[in-house]
Design brief:
The chain is an alpha+beta fold. It contains 6 helices and 3 strands; from the N terminus they run ααβααββαα. It has a single domain, classed as Arc Repressor Mutant, subunit A (Orthogonal Bundle). Helix 2 crosses helix 3. The longest helix is centred in the N-terminal third of the chain and has 13 residues.
Length: 110
């Protein structure tokens, strides 16, 4: 991930509803959540939620998954890991072992 992409991801997460959506999708796991249920889950209006989903998708943090006529959204854990890796790239002034607890805490098999 480069600086421009990381800024887009951070900006996307820097808005309350989008952060709530991302966290909701992380909790949902690989099954994801239908777009209509996301709005209900975060207490937002459907058309506003659609805009938020578009921003999070363009930032590489979520992705749509077609399920017949329904569009489900899932957290893109690769995009999220790329963001974390970028933020921690120069971790601990050349002593990456100091960052190991943080890396272990955010690493999952999802």
């Amino acid at each position: 991930m480069d600086k421009k992409a990381s800024l887009a991801a951070l900006a996307a997460l820097g808005q309350e509803t989008r952060l709530d959506i991302f966290r909701l999708l992380v909790r949902a796991g690989t099954e994801g959540i239908p777009a209509g249920e996301i709005a209900t889950g975060v207490g937002a209006v459907q058309n506003t939620t659609s805009s938020h989903l578009k921003i999070l998708t363009h930032a590489g943090l979520i992705r749509p998954k077609r399920d017949g006529r329904i569009v489900r959204y899932v957290a893109d854990m690769t995009g999220f890991r790329d963001l974390l890796a970028y933020l921690m790239e120069d971790c601990c002034n050349g002593s990456p072992e100091l960052c190991r607890p943080v890396i272990d805490a955010v690493t999952c098999d999802c």
